[in-house]
Amino acid sequence: MTSPHYKTLKPFLITFFIALILGLSGCSTLDKDESKWSVEEFYAEAKDYFDNKQWESAIKYYEKLKAYFPYGKYAEQSYLELAYAYYKYGEPESAQRELDEFIRIYPKHKALPYAYYLKAISADSINKSWFDSWLTDPANRDMESTLDAYKAYINLLNRFPTSKYAAPSRKRIIVLRNRLARHEYQVAQYFYNRQAYLAAANRAKQVIEVYPRSMVNFNALELMRDSYIALGMEKNARDTQKVIDFNLHKLEESDQRRRAKKESS
User: Fold this and answer.
1) What pLDDT was estimated at residue 25?
2) Which of 108, 142, 112, 116 is nearest to 127 (CA)?
3) Distances, alpha carbon 216 to alpha carbons 141, 177, 195, in Å
4) Confidence class of residue 139 from pLDDT cuts 50, 70 and 90?
5) 36 pLDDT exceeds 80?
6) 142 — phi, psi (to 5°)?
7) Environment class of residue 192 by beta-carbon count within 10 Å: exposed (0-12), middle (13-18) or buried (19+)?
8) Chain centre distance of CA 28
9) For the chain, which domains are there?
């Protein structure tokens, strides 16, 4: 005859043993020597940390996965996720290294547009500061990483002009082009203030030729004109003034058309 107490305890015991089995299976990876882990176990561990934004631990296990299992679909996916983890962890140079390796090994991979975009934003992040929006000007810093990011976005657009990363890349190119031009203009001003007028004129000319649609082009033209005047190069100064006048005229015409269109609407 079955005890009534057993009938009461039976559902509890079943639940307890199920929970115990699940708990033991969950601890099996932790208790096993990592050298005996399968590639699936390494990937599951890394991805769990990745999904929870625990970038340092994610990096640790993606690196171990690549060391133990350098080939196959898990290693392939790990490159991109590891690169993103490095980017979010504040190590953009490491992210770029992983992406360069991924692009070299998988030159026809369907995720190449993403890889090129992640490489660009990683380079872009190197020269950023929390104070840029209201206090500091990134154009005052070394432009190497900015130039790298600019080239990386251009490279992405040249290779994948219709990808979903093309539009945000174009926006960043405008920002970076203006930053690079602003830096060159600041260098030209530096030369001018130290009466190195020929160097100032040449640097200002470079702003106009290399970054033709930048926001400092008028400033660069005026600095170029003033440098030629200081050098006594009157013809060059007059020619530069003609370019300034022509562009001012075009700007006035554009403003008039805009106002007329606004009034008629």
Assistant:
1) 41
2) 142
3) 17, 11, 21
4) low
5) yes
6) -60, 135
7) buried
8) 39
9) 39-109 (1.25.40.10), 140-264 (1.25.40.10)
